[in-house]
Design brief:
Blueprint lengths: L9 H11 L15 E7 L11 E8 L2 E9 L7 H25 L9 E3 L2 H8 L8 H4 L2
Parallel strand pairs: 1-4
Antiparallel strand pairs: 1-2, 2-3
Length: 140
């Protein structure tokens, strides 16, 4: 028996799923849009046990959802602006990874919009100078 296909192996489960669903996938017609767009949001201190926040993000390639995440942040934030800034930074790292993957296939993208609903977080990202009230975010 192939050890990769053992029933307890997550890889084996994935391979069996792929083998059983050869017609599933994302379809990108030639004339459809192929721009990468990202959205990010978060809650402030949503976990009642440790007051950590949750970051949510999704990325679309054209009109197709290709990636999404919902993760508890590993730090306790002091404000909603900080929570949204941390969520936007995580989303940005995913977008940069996707950009390099698409570049391997010959698609280069100069500007990739990341939509965030916090004006404060947008202003923090737009200002490269760390202010006294945001210096602690640099060490997280």
């Amino acid at each position: 028996m192939n050890p990769l296909l053992h029933s307890m192996s997550p890889l084996g489960t994935n391979i069996r799923y792929l083998k059983g669903t050869p017609d599933f996938g994302l379809w990108y017609p030639k004339d459809s849009g192929f721009e990468l767009i990202a959205y990010t949001d978060s809650d402030h201190a949503g976990c009642k046990l440790n007051r950590k926040s949750t970051s949510e993000a999704c990325q679309f390639l054209g009109e197709k959802l290709v990636s999404w995440s919902s993760r508890k942040q590993n730090c306790v934030s002091l404000s909603t602006a900080e929570v949204e800034y941390v969520a936007a930074a995580c989303c940005c790292s995913q977008v940069l990874w996707m950009k390099t993957q698409l570049a391997d296939f010959g698609y280069t993208m100069q500007r990739i919009p990341i939509y965030c609903d916090s004006k404060s977080a947008i202003q923090i990202t737009a200002n490269p100078v760390q202010q006294s009230r945001t210096k602690h975010m640099d060490i997280r």
